[in-house]
């Protein structure tokens, strides 16, 4: 029950507040990711709420929200691959590289063929160096790039390596002198879809910006399991418990009772030979910590159920 006293799984103490876990939200357009966090704080009755991977106000779709101790794993989820559906308008550039900005220039794109558009999209697949959007949250001299850009300052950002696993044209529609191109994108963390729209338009010599953006997947979490804010207002419930989220997102290592106590007290274990971060799981199925193997001993990434809990 949200906001009620519960019997903690780690002992007999009664703990006030909701159970820890993840909520997969289908963010609506017109609200910020922080707005969603604020709404979830009220619905779940706790201040301990965060999200993995910011969506712009105009964007919709999958926003992974962490409740209570699940906020500790959000940084790891942010680093996972993501998928999007989007619409790029060719023939128009804006100050923000999306539909929320002011139009800077309009150039007829009526002459573009489907083959030319496909070629420009194909050139951005694979491992590329991408210059982030000028209105990104990247810090420049201690200030966010978007803040400087909105103050009228010129923002120059260095290109960053990203991986575009999928960039497919679904449809191209002629609208007056513009071409609206529906695409699907599968990419590494840190990829800016607005920048893809900008770069496709630049390659074709007509400019471009993003008019629609919907995130369809973050790692293993997809739209098929996402809940709207209205759904949550009717019944605030987790999509995954903390244990379910960890075991879905990371490989599992089963611990002995002795290893469980060592992990809860922050003591390193013998490596398990597992690549990357993994869920160290007690004999009763509770995830005690996320660990990573070092050359000789394990390293604690985050201890979810320390002995002091």
UniProtKB/TrEMBL annotation:
GO MF term list: RNA binding; tRNA pseudouridine(55) synthase activity
Basic and acidic residues bias locations: 1-13
Start and end residues of each tRNA pseudouridine synthase II TruB subfamily 2 C-terminal domain: 250-305
Gene3D superfamilies: Pseudouridine synthase, PUA domain
Catalytic activity: uridine(55) in tRNA = pseudouridine(55) in tRNA
A Pfam family annotated for this UniProt entry: TruB_C_2
Keyword tRNA processing attributed: yes
Stretches assigned to the Pseudouridine synthase II N-terminal domain: 41-193
Region (Disordered): 1-21
EC number(s) from the headed UniProt entry: 5.4.99.25
EC class of the enzyme, as a word: isomerase
GO terms of biological process kind: mRNA pseudouridine synthesis; tRNA pseudouridine synthesis
PANTHER family: PSEUDOURIDYLATE SYNTHASE TRUB1, TRNA-PSEUDOURIDINE SYNTHASE
Protein name as catalogued: tRNA pseudouridine synthase B
């Amino acid at each position: 029950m949200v906001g009620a006293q519960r019997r903690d799984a780690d002992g007999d103490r009664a703990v006030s507040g909701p159970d820890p876990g993840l909520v997969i939200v289908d963010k609506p357009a017109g609200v910020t990711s922080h707005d969603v966090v604020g709404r979830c704080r009220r619905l779940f009755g706790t201040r301990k709420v965060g999200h993995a991977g910011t969506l712009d106000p105009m964007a919709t779709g999958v926003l992974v929200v962490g409740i209570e101790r699940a906020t500790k794993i959000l940084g790891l989820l942010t680093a996972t691959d993501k998928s999007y559906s989007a619409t790029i308008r060719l023939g128009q550039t804006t100050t923000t590289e999306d539909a929320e900005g002011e139009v800077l220039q309009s150039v007829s794109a009526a002459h573009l063929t489907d083959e030319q558009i496909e070629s420009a999209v194909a050139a951005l697949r694979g491992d590329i160096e991408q210059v982030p959007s000028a209105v990104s949250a990247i810090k420049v001299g201690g200030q966010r790039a978007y803040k400087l850009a909105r103050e009228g300052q010129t923002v120059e950002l260095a290109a960053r390596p990203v991986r575009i696993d999928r960039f497919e044209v679904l449809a191209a529609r002629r609208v007056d002198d513009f071409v609206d191109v529906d695409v699907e994108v599968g990419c590494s963390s840190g990829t800016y879809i607005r920048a893809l729209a900008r770069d496709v338009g630049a390659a074709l010599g007509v400019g471009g910006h993003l008019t629609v953006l919907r995130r369809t997947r973050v790692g293993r979490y997809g739209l098929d399991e996402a809940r709207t804010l209205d759904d949550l207002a009717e019944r605030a419930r987790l999509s995954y418990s903390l244990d379910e989220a960890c075991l879905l997102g990371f490989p599992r290592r089963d611990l002995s009772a002795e290893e469980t106590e060592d992990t809860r007290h922050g003591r390193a274990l013998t490596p398990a030979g597992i690549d990357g971060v993994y869920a160290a799981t007690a004999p009763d199925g509770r995830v005690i910590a996320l660990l990573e193997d070092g050359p000789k001993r394990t390293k604690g990434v985050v201890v979810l159920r320390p002995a002091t809990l």
